[in-house]
Amino acid sequence: MKAHILQHVPFEGPGSAADWLQARAATVSWTRFHEPAPVLPAVDDIDLVIALGGPMSVNDEFFLPWLAAEKRFIREAILRGKPVLGICLGAQLMASALGSDIYANIDKEIGWFALEAEPAEVSAFLFPPVITAFHWHGETFDLPPGAVRLASSRACRNQAFQVGARAIGLQFHLETTPDSVALMLENCRDELVRGRCIQSEQVIREQPEGIYRAINGLMGDILDYLVRP
Question: At the N or C end, where does the chain have fewer CB atoms within 10 A?
Fold first, then answer.
């Protein structure tokens, strides 16, 4: 398996998805947009695309011109039926690449909050009825044409969606590990202001080990689903 990771900032990595790739002896390549002269591969050379998160907006093409090329790459991968997983910013990039608007959510959502599964087609990925996941986002999106909503939360209607058989966007983070939470806090601590859906650093850090096992297991299930025969 040849997996390609789209990374936007050095402090948001693949987390537990890296363990999943290693367990399957995947060959992993990267486009690191935070480094000079990022290069995208040919879509035909890739078996799986993982688009990670980042603090920028998908609407920032004037300041970050590589966003336009990344959206074209993601769109081509989806239309060619390649397995594509978008996480947070990655999900917004998927939605934008397929023609949807991305805009500020009513509330920023930062911390550990519950998600509820949405009724979906039998062939779509099925989320657990309720799961608590890690969130760090201030924007949301309209569902792309033909997409199926997979999960929602009280603060954000479109939390997860699927397009076709092999493309899933997640507004939240299932790849999160204690180390990745620490990096997010180190680099984005200034966003922890008072808000209805913003938890304190203490609450964010003081989560039991089991919550990480649960979300990382679900991350693996989604990746298994995307690359299934």
Answer: C
Contact 173, 87 (CB under 8 A): yes
Tens-place pLDDT, residues 117-149? 998 777 899 999 999 999 999 999 999 999 999
Q: Which domains, and CATH codes, for the chain?
A: 2-226 (3.40.50.880)
Distance CA 50, CA 223 (A): 10
pTM over 0.85: yes
Question: Beta 84-87 vs 148-152: how paired, if at all?
Answer: unpaired
Residue 101: exposure state from Cβ atoms within 10 A (0-12, 13-18, ≥19): exposed
Return the biggest CA–CA distance within the chain.
Answer: 46
Smallest Cα–Cα separation from 8: which of 58, 47, 72? Answer: 58
Q: What is the pLDDT of residue 121?
A: 74
